[in-house]
Amino acid sequence: MSAVVAKAAEAPETNPAQKLLEVRDLVMHFRVGHGLFGPPGLVRAVDGVSFSLARGETLGLVGESGCGKTTTGRCVLQLENPTAGEVIFEGRNLVGMEQAQLRKLRNRIQVIFQDPYSSLNPRMTVGQIIAEPIAVHGLERDPSAREERVRGLLVRVGLLPQHAHRYPHELSGGQRQRVGVARALAMQPSLIICDEPVSALDVSIQAQIINLLDELQADFGLSYLFVAHDLAVVRHISDRIAVMYLGKIVELASRRDLYEAPAHPYTRALLSAVPIPDPAMEATRERQVLTGEVPSPLNPPSGCVFHPRCPLAIERCKREAPQLRAVGSAHQAACHLV
Amino acid sequence: MATLLSVSSLATQFSTRSGVVKAVDGVSWNVEEGETVALVGESGCGKSASALSIMRLIAEPAGRIVAGSVMFKGRDLLALTEEEMRKVRGREIGMIFQEPMTSLNPVLTVGRQLTEGLEIHLGMTPTAARARALELLGMVGIPDAQRRLAQYPHQFSGGMRQRMMIAMALACEPPLILADEPTTALDVTIQAQILELMKSLSRKLGVAMLIITHNLGVVARYADRVNVMYAGKIIEQASARELYANPRHPYTEGLLRSVPRLDEPRRSKLAPIEGQPPDLTHLPQGCSFAPRCRWREARCLESAPELAAVAGEWHTSACWQAEHLGAVAAA
Questions:
Q1: A116, A111, A80: which is closest to A193 by C-alpha?
Q2: Are residues B304 and B218 part of one domain?
Q3: Cis preceding-peptide flag for B61 (omega within 30 of 0)
Q4: Do A277 and B241 lie within an 8 Å CB cutoff?
Q5: Which of these, A72, A137, B161, B284, is most buried using a 10 Å CB contact count?
Q6: Cβ–Cβ contacts within 10 Å for residue A178, how many?
Q7: At residue A140, does pLDDT exceed 50?
Q8: Which helix H or strand E contains A316, and what residues bound it?
Q9: Which chain A residues have a beta carbon less than 8 Å from that of B271?
Q10: Does B259 contact chain A (CB < 8 Å)?
Q11: Does the pLDDT of residue A4 top 70, yes or no?
């Protein structure tokens, strides 16, 4: 399947032996609009995405709504069946893998969702929520040992053992997100997909959860695929960052390169759009406000998908889609002009 | 500049199953003509309840304004009849809400929603109202206005809907616009567009704005003066520059420290405010922020400090240690 897709440029990489996850030429297209309303269309949610993730590393996946960052995460989790491409986790391709085998391997990939209000079952106690995956996957068959483990996890994420008897509605947003983290940790994963894990939380609580994720990564050697739209949060937590626009990665770089020397015009515009909490700074800051809006992934523009909004676009950008290519030692961008 | 809106000792309560929630607990602040004032705080701090109280949109009987006054252009809005109040909403105070899809009528065309207010409030003829609607769409940067007027809200993108909300808010040229989280539901590049638009229009037309938000970056860029709320009370007030440079309440200081900033070197660890947001039905006896405060001392648990002036330009803080905090920051 992947043979028909053009080989993308090699991602900037640390030691290949340390590679935990490798996504190759991932494509996810959705068919929409059969039946009553108009002709069917094809949403190109993810359109040829490649990246890799080392053990203990955090890769930030940023972009605006509809850029395909969440769908990419769902494809890694195999919650979606990709149209094309490979998801190689711990050396094996999850795409098209037999169910029983996939179930076993997938334990080691967990997910933390954005909204801790809707991702926890309101009829279960916190203890039951965390114990369920441990029981279902037979990680601990003895009920009292399982309870002990749940208490240990609660303490590890900064809650109290007695929180096991509470229901989600009795907890605050931050505490609920800690439960979500404990549930993910219960499976002893090597990779956690964090899908906007702090964006639904109050500002004063966000930092608590980010620090917790940082500590857990150091303690357990976890890898994070951190999907978010908040560029300041992503800078804090990520080692490398991939910027997505309309289903494609437009820039992939180390944290330092991306924030100090952004190459792609879209990345530069994104960074410039983030307001800085300091009126004195804001008064003197040069702003580059992008005109127009993100086009529909149903009908993406020709050539470079960013060209209709790009302040630098030239004729070539309308005709020819730029490939992601190296612009530095650990820095790739998809733009004709860099 | 004359004072346009003056809120005094406003208190709004909600009856819930777990007790009475003092959502707004005796707050006072004002807006001068043409300036932009922010009401900042996290969920449940009472910022939106304050806005709804001013507009008299608190859902009764569960919610009730129990005390205070809202003087607007010399009249107390809380003493108006519902009939009189209806003439204030939209005509005198424009409104922009967070989620434009739920605040626009899905079965009326965009054109009709714009012209309705103009015909009712300003007594315009349909032809005049339509001409004005076209002008408004152009002003907020909606291209192809002729065609757009005949469309429905679902045919607009999120950013375009918010532009449409701004056009509606501006339609009757009110002296004050109240914007409750106007860009929270939008992507960051669109957020920047909308905020630039609001800022330039408010300057050009001399409209005063009340921005209600949790986003400290948005406040920094757009507000002249800031009121910070926590657990139903205002805990600090200052000009935006003064507040960010010299916070005098531990909560404000904690909020500013806890957000990662793109203009600063990355820190290895963030500095969160410890603990959980307050339970509004069971507030502690003393200062509501005391349980989470790193400067807490015995008296904080006993009695809540009132807002009091601190050194510097227009600046108040409700903290026993406000002066001390300033000295620590200066050291």
A1: A111
A2: no
A3: yes
A4: no
A5: A72
A6: 25
A7: yes
A8: helix A315-319
A9: 207
A10: yes
A11: no
Structural element, H or E, at residue B205: helix B188-205
Do both B283 and B235 map to the same domain? yes
Question: Is B294 an interface residue toward A (CB < 8 Å)?
Answer: no
**Of A258, A228, A229, nearest to A241 (Cα)?**
A258
Structure tokens at B315: 């600046």
- Whether B225 and B243 map to the same domain: the answer is no
Cβ of B220 within 8 Å of Cβ of A273? The answer is no
Q: Residues of B with CB below 8 A from A70's CB?
A: none
Q: What is the domain-level CATH number for residue B223? A: 3.40.50.300
Burial A311-333 (b: 16+ CB within 10 A, else e): eebeeebeeebbebeebeebbbb
pLDDT in tens, B5-18: 999 999 999 998 88
Domain of residue B42: give its range: 3-229
- Does this model's pTM top 0.90? no
d(CA A135, CA A123): 18
Examine the domain organization and report whether B153 and B17 are in the same domain.
Answer: yes
**Residue A2 exposed, middle or buried by CB count within 10 Å (0-12, 13-18, 19+):** middle
**Cβ under 8 Å to A: B residues 156-195:** 157, 159-160, 187-193, 195
Residue B187 to residue A232, Cβ atoms within 8 A: no
Determine the residue of chain A that is closest to B188 in CA distance: A273
C-alpha separations of B2 from A249, B6, B30 in Å: 52, 11, 11
The CB density around residue B218, as the number of other CB atoms within 10 Å, is 22
Tokens 């009764």 correspond to: B60
Provide ipTM, 2 decimals. Answer: 0.84
- The answer to whether the CB atoms of A64 and B187 lie below 8 A apart is yes
Structure tokens at A221: 């050697």
Question: What is the average pLDDT across A130-155?
Answer: 93
Place of tokens 């406040």: B219
- Mutation test of the interface with chain A: which of B142, B163, B219, B221, choosing the one with the most A Cβ atoms within 10 A? B221
Residues from chain A that touch B273, judged by Cβ atoms under 8 A, are 204-205, 207-208
Domain A9-55+65-106+239-333 bears CATH identifier 3.40.50.300: yes
Which among A173, A204, A282 is the nearest to B272, CB-wise? A204
Q: Which residues of A touch B193 (CB under 8 A)?
A: 289-291
